[in-house]
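Two records follow; treat each independently.
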Amino acid sequence: MRLDVFLKQSRLIKRRTVAREACERGLVLLNGRVGKPASEVKVGDTIALTLGSRHLTVQVVSLPESPRAADATGMYRTLADETGPAV
């Protein structure tokens, strides 16, 4: 599954175009490297996101063919969720 599609289907990012832009701007790391939108995501991969002042690190747990909204949080496991100081 493509990285931008995973981010959208797992509801980590609301829209696929926003996920693609985040990847292109270097805000998404896949296994420690800058993730391109078309990078292939596999079970066990680690994804680190920087969204504003929030830094989120998740591990891919499952890749269902057509996930429902209720299945979205089961696609990943949160490893770290840090929020920077309010500005």
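The next record belongs to a different protein.
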Amino acid sequence: MENSLVSQGAELMVFGMGTVIIFLALLVVATTGMSKVVTRFFPVAEPVVPPKKNLPPAAADKQTLVAVITAAIHQHRQAKKPRQ
């Protein structure tokens, strides 16, 4: 009796694990297929970078840096003014 109960348990285990493995394999195949379909019909567009105002990159970066520093100093000085 124990032998048949153990064999039934092993059979049930193999059937259950086989079902899970088959399901996961089908899931991988379906996901891969959907990914290929989406990338074929909806390719990723390259981001468009707006051109700077005819300045060399270093000059544009310096102007931005100066503007940021100036704004920070102005904000700091406004916060330190004594209130009357």
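Discussion point: The chain has a mean pLDDT of 85. How would you locate this feature using only the token line?
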